[in-house]
Amino acid sequence: MAAVTRFHLLQPSTLLKSSSILSKYHHATPFFTISANNNTDLRQFRRGRGYRNLSTIPPLRCNSENSSSSTESNHSIVSDLLDYLNESWTHFHATGIKFSGSLRLCILRMTEAKRQLVAAGFHLLNENEDWELKPGGRYFFTRNMSSLVAFAIGEKYSIGNGFHVIAAHTDSPCLKLKPKSASSKSGYLMVNVQTYGGGLWHTWFDRDLSLAGRVIVRAEDGSFSHKLVKIKRPLLRVPTLAIHLDRTVNTDGFKPNLETQLNLLLATEADKISNEKSDASSKAAHHQLLMQILSDELGCQVEDIANIELNVCDTQPSCLGGANDEFIFSGRLDNLASSFCALRALIDACASPDDLLNEHAIRMVALFDNEEVGSNSCQGAGAPTMFEAMRRIIDCLGQKIVGECGFARAIRHSFLVSADMAHGVHPNFVDKHEENHRPVLQKGLVIKHNANQRYATSGITSFLFKEIAETHNLPTQEFVVRNDMGCGSTIGPILASGVGIRTVDCGIAQLSMHSVREICGKEDVDIAYKHFKAFYRTFSSIDRKLKVDF
Ligand SMILES: [Zn+2]
């Protein structure tokens, strides 16, 4: 005990009482807004009709605090999610951007996340340049067109205050073209692919598939730019073997060899033109026929295509289903549904200038690539992208005199919601779930627990997150995996252990996870959106009431 008396217990929050460094900042200029009172207007705006020149377009106002509470509580984002899913065939489309010429030239056309953020008044930052930030400002940047960090700074922010973050991932299990994809078999032109992530590969058979992704294009002046491409017509197919040639498939299971039996059918070699082109390009990395289709889509010459990075995609549009249209049938729900709910919650929680007026924290969304393969990449959650951004924000607002102490205090005040889809109980496989933890569709976000830290949820973080739901009359559910089964994981533990940030793991319940065609409940999407928006708007006040050691 004697030794203990020599140590003073420090409260992180009292190391530097509210700094006066930021007092020189004044309120941000209010954003001009346009009303988007119905979904049709909103969708038309987002689909690109009416916004040719982004610089003349006022930021879009979604659902602000000024909306009547009944309108807001009834507002559904599901149709917008369907639009987002149908636009976002790849992680690039979900996140990225199309540039004209060099990377420094103006933005010509944005893809979904960026388009929505710019429309909502968020300013695009470049990680390669100095940032100028101010309280009340809204900002974002992307990396590799597949990870994104967006944030809005509270007007009352002072150094050491926290970041309130929702993090999700933009990638999904899929098939990706090999660097040399062209092959020929038995008179067919085939396309060879790599498997990405832990997909349910049998679901990719007999689907109408196509290609989408990023292409590096050589310009006339010798410079290179990247272009997003999406070929909407069914272009590829992996046929299953007929039952007559595989009599035991229904009893022994379908176990395709992923190297030799998952190649995609592009064309027959019977066509004269295909034959000629195929012969001429027999040593080419990709079939000439495929490259011609790509160049037609891009409006360039085949010779100008310097490199391609393409995913195989299902062409069937995302849609509502079920007798009451209560389900969402779509690919990539894991985890674009979470990404979209997080983005919309941030945009709508900062829609009006008043939204940030009394905010002491920084509201943030962080979307990462490569979660499905472990997150260890430049654009994955294993890279320090988000924490570097936090340091830069603090340095920027504190005029670079803050030091590590400011960052450490900010982290201790921060809270991370790791949002990733959850396993709803399957009616035909009920026993796969622990008997008291069987999340069902349409019953709210699932809080994920794991004693072995496969999820980062703690008693404190689950309490805080559920408290938000309770004060907004939103349902939640709990999930824990059976002791006799392995547990999945998320970016939650990676980020939580990176710098010691309080984290809760949660997600929308779904079925058919990692199938080419997944299912979730429409109601859950709206509940997640409301829960996330409430997190941004009320976490500061709820956190202030917490008197515990965390
Ligand atoms: Zn996921």
From TrEMBL:
Pfam families reported for this sequence: Peptidase_M18
Protein family membership: Belongs to the peptidase M18 family.
GO molecular function, one term: metallopeptidase activity
SUPFAM superfamilies the record matches: Aminopeptidase/glucanase lid domain, Zn-dependent exopeptidases
InterPro entries: Peptidase_M18 (IPR001948), Peptidase_M18_dom2 (IPR023358)
Name listed for the protein in its UniProt record: aspartyl aminopeptidase
Top enzyme category: hydrolase
Lineage, uppermost ranks: Eukaryota, Viridiplantae, Streptophyta, Embryophyta, Tracheophyta
